[in-house]
Amino acid sequence: MVACFLAGELSSARFSGGIRAALAAMSVSETLLTQPDLTDPMANETRRAILASTRGYGENRLLFECFPQHVEWSRAWLPSRDLAAVRYIDYSYWNDLSGGTRLPADAARRILRGEQAFNMSNAAFFVAAEAVQRGDTFPPLIFVGVQFDRLVCLEGNLRLTAHALAEFPRGLDCFVGISADMHGWAK
């Protein structure tokens, strides 16, 4: 999950600068993220340290504030109907963009009507939606929840929105983290 999360953020216009700065501070190449060797314990620890420094992973801060320590991670294929039920993270931008529902399909309808959250451009959503329609692939989305039928997007909210704009044309390979203690984070 850590390697996938960092790969997703490395490709993000919003978060890639922080990831690259952390890599530079540790004198580590981007290949640590673009070609992860998950059998290398030192590489895994370095990735974990990067996620801690940039997003607070394992430190109970930033994005990972109140995030449970014990999460069971699995790789899963979610069909379109299940993807459509995943909610955004509880964050002001995504709440506003979706009209308060935190559902990407609602955000997609609002985007198509020209509505913007906090007067921020929707251009990136359209670019990503075109990539989805072309069949381009992205890093797997990462979802979390108390149980599998009520998931929240931990990483990949923009990509999830792109799939909603493209009307969820296909299922996706994802990472899913389940924890009985996730109710405080994945509300």
Concise synopsis of the structure shown:
This protein has about 190 residues and is an alpha+beta fold. It has helices at about 1-10, 15-25, 30-35, 40-55, 80-85, 90-95, 105-110, 125-135, 155-165; strands spanning about 70-80, 140-145, 150-155, 170-180.
Describe this protein's structure.
The chain is α+β, with helices and mostly antiparallel strands. It has two domains: 2-64, no CATH class; 72-184, Conserved hypothetical protein from pyrococcus furiosus pfu- 392566-001, ParB domain, CATH 3.90.1530. The chain is 42% helix and 12% strand. The chain has a four-stranded mixed beta sheet. The relative contact order is 0.17.
Keywords:
Conserved hypothetical protein from pyrococcus furiosus pfu- 392566-001, ParB domain; alpha+beta; 12% strand; 187 residues; four-stranded mixed sheet; 2 domains; globular
Number of domains: 2
Number of strands: 4
CATH class of the largest domain: Alpha Beta
Strand content: 5-15%
Secondary-structure topology with pairs:
Blueprint: H1 2-10, H2 16-25, H3 31-34, H4 41-55, E1 72-78, H5 80-83, H6 92-97, H7 104-112, H8 123-134, E2 141-145, E3 152-155, H9 157-165, E4 172-178
Helix pairs in contact: 1-4, 2-4, 7-9, 8-9
